[in-house]
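Re: How this chain folds, sequence and tokenised backbone to follow

Filed under: protein folding, tokenised backbone structure, sequence and structure records.

Contents: The amino acid chain and a row of whole-number tokens, matched residue for residue.

Body of memo: The sequence and its backbone structure tokens, given next.
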Amino acid sequence: MNPNRNECKDLKDAKSSAGFWEYHGLARDGINLLLNNGFEESQRLFRSHSDGSPLMSAGSGMVDFVQAILTFEDDQLDRALENLKRAQRVCYVENTAKKGPELGRDEQLMRQILYADCELYMALLTFLKQGITDYIKGGYLMRRAWKLYDKCYCEISAIGGPFLMWAPELRGEGNGALQSGLDEGEEALDESVGVGVVSPLDPDEMVPSLDDLTINEVNAEAVSPEALKHLQAAVSCGYGLFHLAISLVPPKLLKFCHLLGFSGNRDVGIQALNLASKSEDMKAPVARLTLLWYHAVIRPFVALDEGSNEEGLANATAILEESYQEYPSSAVFLFFKGLVSRLKGCIGEALDEFHQAMRFAAEQKEIALICQYEIGWCHMLRLEWEYALPAFFKLKEESKWSQSYYAYLCGGKCYKLLYSGTSLIQQAMGYNILILLMGWLN
């Protein structure tokens, strides 16, 4: 018995989707290389496959984004923006060129999520340029990314049911899985056409609206359970990041964010990031680092636990223990491990971990300088002025940020060395460095 037309279509979609998802594991390997201090190896892996795979092209854009954030150099920022535009074209133009049954529903949704990821990275890089028009462009790109994440979350929930415990107050009724309003998501996609000033693509590179990617008319059976799991993890990272970030905005600014179409719920954000962090998606390490940043930096700094950090530090420790086997030599994870140790009061352990992170980050100057900063403060907490001074002096000489602040810290340490009853050699060292600082400030 010959297969009918629908069976042939489903078979063709399955083959297309299988070819798309075969890069899923390779993309995760590339991100693992990046986090295990292999920037160049990771970039080579992604670029060798970026022309034929949206997943690898988006991964290449992510690596460039990380490098631009760390270096903060104009040429790196411009290169990252160009590569992210190229990744968008791979996810965008190829999809609209192959309309209808050529792409499975899972691939269409994943392309939209990857497109939103690139949009978010571009928004953050645009903010770093610090111009008035750049803030407007960045806000616009960020709003579009949020609308795309929200739209994809709703469509994925329509396929497999809600996968996050929803806060009803955000949607008005029910669990919100289907109540976000696809019109708003489609509105965000329509904005990509005809707005040359703030579009991620130049006017001569404009492509049709992303509405061509709408897949409501395709049957839910076209998505396999494995692909559905990948989609849920992929959208959860960006979706949770937005919810968590917006929930931390001060109340007076929160009303303004709501007017712009953003919404945020901290519990939903953390739950979404937890789901993404335990997945096999290439952004799972990003979700883990976001959770570490929240538990080890934001919660103590904003005093979300009213002065008690035990719960946040316990959560951060659990994430670090889960990540150790996969990232044993990652300078970034070692930095967070040292930070958690310092917050626990284990200064000796923290110093060992920061020094270890610096050794692994020998080719990543920016990460090494962040560790140097923490080493200086650890010595200050132990009143070891003679060890804190070299750390901050190196930061003043090599860091592009806050050099006046580092000069102030060096001056304070020199004063302590001069008048704290230390040895004559240490006093002489403090006096000489103080003279150098005075000359630098003049």
The two ends are 90 Å apart (CA to CA). Residues 5-215+222-273 form one domain. The chain has three domains: 5-215+222-273, 283-375, 383-442. The first helix runs from residue 5 to 21.
